[in-house]
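Support request, please re-run this one:
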Amino acid sequence: MTTFESRNPAHPSSIVGTFAVADAAAVDDAVRRATGAQRAWAQVPVPARAEIIGSIGDVLASRKADLARLVTLEAGKILVEAGGDVQEAVDMAGFIAGQGRAAWGTTHPCEMPNKFGFTTRHPVGVVGMITPWNFPVAIPSWKIFPALLAGNGVVIKPSELAPACCDAFVEACVAAGVPADLVNVVHGFGDVGAAITTHPGVRAISFTGSVPTGRRVAAAAMEVGPKLVSLELGGKNAAIVMDDADLDLVVEGALFGAFGTSGQRCTSTSRLVVHRAVADELVERITARATALRVGDPMDATTDVGPVITAESAARIHGMVERAIDEGNTLVMGGHAVEPSECEGGSFYTPTLLRGAHRDSYIARNEVFGPVLAVLEVESFDDAIETVNDCEYGLSSAIYTHDVNLAMQAVHRLDTGIVYVNAPTIGAEIHLPFGGNKHTGNGYREAGTRGLEQFSETKSVYIDYSGRLQKAQIDNREALS
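Re-run finished. Output below.
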């Protein structure tokens, strides 16, 4: 049996766990078990399913401290952010549980007399899920809870960098009353994800990860037959700072948005599009605050910035910074890997600020997924909007201004799935749809009431109680005369 190890990114010599790599037979068995359990689960009334999902939230809440510690150990988040990761799953359980007694469709008037039309939703069957390491508890909750409410079975492959967190999450589901075979975890690498994606018993795929991998997932899924495929991919998020902005607020937002979670969120603020009139002062303020951030062991409550996930990630981030400098950007601060004394061998990168980028710069167009913030200077509001939109990604954006007219224009003109006003690009709430435009995704949204769409199919129902054949458009005028 082939195995792999999950290691603590702050202390790579520390092994979090050892996991078996699933082969094709293991994936097939997981799909078979999910299929069998799903048939019975689909017969459970939706409110009863919802009650179990609500119970999962209770179990997660009772285990929050231990789960947060596991997230810190395996994903490297500082403790307070790890607690937020778990809390997001608790909140999602409560929201999805509430949807169990919400509208499940719509009613519609029909063209013919004595006829009634409505829509309802029904499960797709077995859903395959491929999830990343950076939100190892929250993202599985975004996917698994609505999938279960809709009546599906689940086969999930978490990132090989955070397998223990997914196991712990699914254990909480089972402890709350979810049938053991209904949610199945398989571990491994890309070939395991491919086996799930192309399995004929899997009717839908939900993937969160990079754009190149997402494209391969979508293509592979469609090659073996029509499947529902939802993709949540990358981001190159930007915050506009107008010349009337509250710079104190901007600084706080930039620190949290760019350097929180070591910049390893799909919604991290990666571009700061600043009106030239305030650029000098803002760069100076951010630099003064960011240089004081403590980089270190995420288990230490005084740490502000924890590790990046692997040494390879740190090297990739550094390569992008070096390229930016070679292209003429000025390195204002940071720009190098660091190894805190208490974290021998750990993968850390200093909070980094670059200035001088323009909209065609490599650093301004490509996702860094690290604690790097590029400042782009603009002359006007229109220039700022065009700069933000001139990018293949469209996940999250923000604008800082006191001018309500500009704020509302930005809301309408920014081509992103999420827009913040006077707040950073991160901080999504679970009752609103989450997702992006352009290369960020393929139109589905997670969370909110729309989160059920990728895990269920709409059924239109017509009930004719006229007692005779009615042919809709063919004879409706005669029937009404």
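Residues 236 and 243 are 23 Å apart (CA to CA). The longest strand covers residues 11-20.
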